[in-house]
Design a protein that fits this description.
Blueprint: H1 19-38, E1 43-44, H2 57-64, E2 67-68, H3 83-96, H4 104-109
Parallel strand pairs: 1-2
Length: 110
């Protein structure tokens, strides 16, 4: 299997990650194009944050993603199913804490 990871996406300070920003910038401009570039077929799952389950976000993902797990199909607060919280975040934390990080610019270099 190829290396199926994208670069980290940083949200600038002061930006409110509301439904429109999440959908129009993070999904359409950043996440979906990068994911498609490395993997033709993929499963997309997210938590139930308001921006993730917004009125226009869910239909966008249902139309754009080959296998989208809709918010109503994903159990809330399910730690045994939350890969991000238990694997990805832990791996990122291990990598970040190997070096002293003074600011966001240092973090971006990791």
């Amino acid at each position: 299997m190829p290396n199926c990871r994208t670069h980290l996406i940083f949200v600038d300070p002061g930006i409110k990650t509301n439904a429109a920003y999440y959908r129009d910038v993070l999904l359409k401009q950043e996440m979906l194009p990068h994911i498609r570039a490395i993997s033709g077929d993929f499963i997309f799952q997210q938590d139930s944050a308001p921006a993730h389950r917004a009125h226009e976000t869910v239909p966008l993902l249902q139309g754009e993603v080959p296998a989208f797990v809709a918010p109503n199909l994903w159990p809330p607060n399910s730690p045994d199913l939350n890969l991000v919280a238990y694997k990805v975040c832990g791996t990122m934390q291990d990598r970040v804490y190997r070096a002293k990080v003074r600011d966001v610019d240092d973090l971006k270099k990791l």
